Amino acid sequence: MKRSTPTFLLCAAVLAAVAACTPTGSDEPTSPDTSEPAAESDPAEPAPSESAEADDPDDDAEADESEDSTDSAESADGSSSASRPESSRVTVDLGGDSTVVQPTDVYCSGQPGDIEHIIGKTDNQLPLIEVSGSHFAMVKLDQRGAPEKTENPQGISFGEDWVTFSDATVGSATLDGSMVCTAWED
């Protein structure tokens, strides 16, 4: 087991280097609410909770002002600390089964506010969830079969030191939840 960790970290470093060479643009969410999908992935589609919470006109004005100031803070530093999840927990729906993954080890590369690559594992083993910028995502729940993976995933947004999944499709799997970095690597 100890020999696989350096090999895995080397692979992660190579993937991070490849991601660093590719222009990423801005994939920041327009709202710090972790339950909403990233609005920039489909600007024509409003976030579902925005319309559901719009009952009182006074609340709408306050919410709009709050979102505007949050959006400005997010664009300036890449994230909002107000929406930081407390812990890592991702629900993976695959083949009609729902599995809750609570990664204990979440390795990040890049810098806080500019995550290039994030890998979450449980007790340094499977299940594994990996995201490389806006270019690649993968999930592997157990030793059986190939991992679920996708290029240019949707529904994934980055924060200061976390990533959020909101109905993110990765292969045949759908992910909801978040992972918070526990260690940074160069």
Write the layout of secondary structure elements.
Layout: H1 4-21, H2 48-52, H3 57-77, E1 89-94, E2 97-101, E3 105-111, E4 114-122, E5 125-132, E6 136-140, E7 148-151, E8 156-158, E9 162-170, E10 173-180, E11 183-185
Give a description of the structure.
There is one protein chain. The chain has 186 residues and is of the alpha+beta class. Helix content is 24%, strand content 36%. It has three helices and eleven strands. A hairpin with a 3-residue loop joins strand 8 and strand 9. The longest helix is centred in the middle third of the chain and has 21 residues, at 57-77. The two termini are 23 Å apart.
Quickly list its features.
single chain; about 190 residues; alpha+beta; six-stranded mixed β-sheet; five-stranded antiparallel β-sheet; 3 helices; 11 strands; disordered N terminus
